Structures are given as structure tokens and as C-alpha cells.
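Following the same procedure, sequence and fold were stored together, as reproduced here:

>
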Amino acid sequence: MSYEAVQARLDPARARSLFTAQWPMTSVPVLGSPAVSVPTGVADGLPAGDQLIGGGLAGDVILDAAQVIEDRAPGLTPVS
């Protein structure tokens, strides 16, 4: 679907609601902080996970920590 088609179908009130719900997620990339989300299981039928955010040049530390969490999490299957 093209960008124009998506824009034509998007209700301005719904777009504003989505932006308001998602604005906290914009600070990490804007600040340039290394971050990763790690799936950890399912809670109440919904996927659950942890988000790790580091400072400065801590990308390798964040990835190492994410690997430890992922190794200890139960095996996950796609949500159907």
C-alpha cells in the first residue's frame, strides 16, 4: 500500500491518538541511546518483554544483557 493510500485512510483523530500513545518511544532514537527489546514470554495472552536502554557507548553491554535475558526466557512461538 502506498504512503498516499495510507494517509487517505487514516483518520486525523486516530493518527493523533496513535502519536500520543507512541511519543515516549521517540526519545531513545532521538537521543542516540543504544536500546533493545527482548521478548520474554506471554502474559494474559499478550506478548511480553523487556526493553533495555543504555547510555553513550554501551551498545555492547546492552546486547550482552539482552542475550542473557533471551537465553533464560522460555521458548517463544509466534502469536496466532
Notes: The mean pLDDT is 83. The beta strands are 35-43, 46-53. The first strand starts at residue 35 and ends at 43. The helical segments are 3-9, 12-22, 27-31, 59-72.
